[in-house]
Amino acid sequence: MKQLFRWFTVLAIFLMIFALWNPGRAVEDPMTAVGAFKFNKGLAAPGFNIETLAGDPVRLEDFRGKVVLIDFWATW
Questions:
Q1: What pTM did the predictor assign?
Q2: What is the helix (H) or strand (E) element at residue 28, kind and residue range?
Q3: pLDDT digits (tens, 9 = 90+) for 7-59
Q4: What values do phi and psi take at 58, rounded to 5?
Q5: What is the b/e burial string over 16-48, where b = at least 16 CB atoms within 10 angstroms of the residue's CB?
Q6: Virtual torsion, Cα 35, 36, 37, 41, nearest 10 deg
Q7: Which of 21, 51, 52, 63 is the most core-located residue (most Cβ within 10 A)?
């Protein structure tokens, strides 16, 4: 069992080194590579509407000029 664990560890290290070593697959901006939208300073966030747990509507526009932290999460 220990030998099998060692082989998997060596294989994982080899694959990580190969992934980092291969410059042909390198991406200049990893956020762009995964399709994430990156905000630039001074760029307005796209507006959206959402309901609170109590059912009250909230618009991003209501918080204009204030610092807003939006945390999207899931429980699955």
A1: 0.38
A2: none
A3: 888 888 877 776 666 566 666 666 666 667 666 677 777 888 989 889 999 99
A4: -135, 135
A5: eeeeeeeeeeeeeeeeeeeeeeeeeeeeeeeee
A6: -130
A7: 63
